[in-house]
Write a structure and sequence with these properties.
This protein is α/β, with parallel strands linked by helices. The protein contains 6 helices and 12 strands. GO terms for molecular function: succinyl-CoA:3-oxo-acid CoA-transferase activity.
Length: 236
């Protein structure tokens, strides 16, 4: 069986990128961002991308890089409030946006990985979120129909992986990353540590290796904090 481990982020993305593709990018804020893979997508120069991600990075970091290079045509997101470049491009009509309630976005991605093309939720009923979508009545309550999300490529950031592609995520980085790993036609995981086969406790594996096609050790692990607030330590 061919190895899933690739030497560099460039190698891990080789022959996977093309203009107009849809990419899922993991992370929650700046936690769990595929910090090593995003810059290589920028360098590849692919255009007209649809990006599915909770947010679009922050000024100067994460998916902001692909906004700055004008490679993103459309964002499917749930939170866009910390990115001034995102705001500018959207308000100017340069960037298309499909805004989702955060739980709905997570469930659409999970549904894509589970092979469930549609589901119903009360979230968004009676708001612009429901415009143009079918509404059904269940037990006297209105529910809006939402559809799955899938991607040509999913890029995720994990804490540990073994050679089979089993992944462990750490703390907040588990948001979105495990679900996205199941919903891409191809999934590339950058990881902080690659361990030997059998080193991961099966009870602690968050994403089974069957969903992961390629693994690469991350070259960037900045783990930036979007807003750091500190106060002077009180005297003892």
């Amino acid at each position: 069986m061919a190895s899933k481990i690739f030497a560099t982020p460039v190698d891990a993305l080789r022959d996977l990128l093309f203009d107009g593709m849809t990419i899922m990018s993991g992370g929650f804020g700046l936690s769990g961002n595929p910090e090593s893979l995003i810059p290589e997508i920028r360098k590849a120069g692919v255009k007209g991308l649809t990006i599915i991600s909770n947010n679009a990075g922050a000024d100067g970091f994460g998916l902001w890089m692909l906004l700055e290079s004008r490679q993103i045509r459309k964002m499917i997101s749930s939170y866009v409030g910390e990115n001034k470049l995102f705001e500018q491009q959207y308000l100017s009509g340069e960037l298309e946006l499909e805004l989702n309630p955060q739980g709905t976005l997570a469930e659409r991605i999970r549904a894509g990985g589970a092979g469930i093309p549609a589901f119903f939720t009360k979230t968004g009923v009676g708001t612009v979120v429901a415009e143009g979508k079918p509404i059904e009545i269940f037990e006297g309550e209105e529910y809006v129909r939402e559809t799955w999300l899938c991607a040509d490529l999913a890029i995720v950031k994990a804490w540990k992986a073994d050679p089979a592609g089993n992944l462990m995520f750490r703390k907040t980085a588990r948001n979105f990353n495990p679900n996205m790993a199941t919903a891409g036609k191809v999934t590339v995981a950058e990881v902080e540590e690659i361990v030997e086969a059998g080193a991961l406790d099966p009870d602690c594996i968050h994403t089974p290796g069957i969903y992961v096609d390629r693994i690469v050790k991350s070259t960037v692990n900045e783990k930036r904090i979007e807003k750091l607030t500190t106060r002077a330590r009180e005297a003892a």
